[in-house]
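Field reference: sequence -> structure
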Amino acid sequence: MKTAISGLSGCGNTTVSKRVAEALGIRVANYTFRQLSNELGIGFEELHEKSKTDPKYDLMLDKKLIELSGENSVLSSRLAIWLSNADLKVWLHASLKERARRISSRDKAPLEETLEKTKKRDKENSERYKGLYGVNIKKFVEVADLVINTESYDEEGVAELIVEAARNPPKKPNRKAKKFAKKIRQTIDSKLV
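Structure field:
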């Protein structure tokens, strides 16, 4: 059983993915820019800035995610539903304002500043994903089997919905999603040597 969970920053991907994996008795495959920045020995903000002009960082991150994912895993990342040939692909959604509130609370940062940073980061990430892989992150419904508004449920409620869906995955694979996963793998292989 393979489940992919995606959503923009502040939607609860990491927390929910851990709960889902625990409930299903499988592992989480999660690798973030924060982890990559630690491995490379550079700051998160510096890595984010470099990634705007050098695609190798996105390619490195996504290659690692693909390597970590496998059978019996929950893949958690912004692009998980595009990267993976998962049995179930889930998109977590929350408004910009709510996501900024959550991030502000987590990072203990001023809300207005966090709101502006989050808005800017969303735009930059969207442009990078579109340019690198042809992924329009705003069209998540084209590849997601399940979309959950995380403002409507607490973490446990979101996880329960996903666990139920994972136990009864769609019968037919999403062809568009499979096509994206193949294209992304080919892009990574051709550009990251």
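Note: The first helix runs from residue 13 to 24.
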